[in-house]
Amino acid sequence: MDELRKSEPEAGLALLAALFTTALVATLVWVLSVQNLIQWRLLQEVEARLYSMVLAQNGIEFARGLLPLVEVDELLAGPDGSFSGTDLAEWRNPLPFAEARRLDPESWTPGRDDGLPARGRDSLLPNGYSDPGGGRFYLRFSNNPEEPAHQDRDGVVLVRSMGVAPLKLRNPFLASTRNSVTLIETRLLQETAFRLRSAITLAGDSGDFQWSGSQFLLDGGHREPAVRFLSLGGDGLGADFRRNLSRAQARRIRGAGSEPSLRDSTGAYRGDPRYRSLFQAVFWRHFQDQLPILSSATGIVHLPEGGSLPAAASGVVVARGNLILQGDVRFRGILLHLGGGAVILKDRAQIAGGLWLSNLSLDGDTVRGGPLSLHLSDLARIRYDADAIRSGLRSFPPTQLGWRLLFPEMTP
Question: Of residues 410 and 51, which shows the higher confidence score?
Answer without folding.
Answer: 51
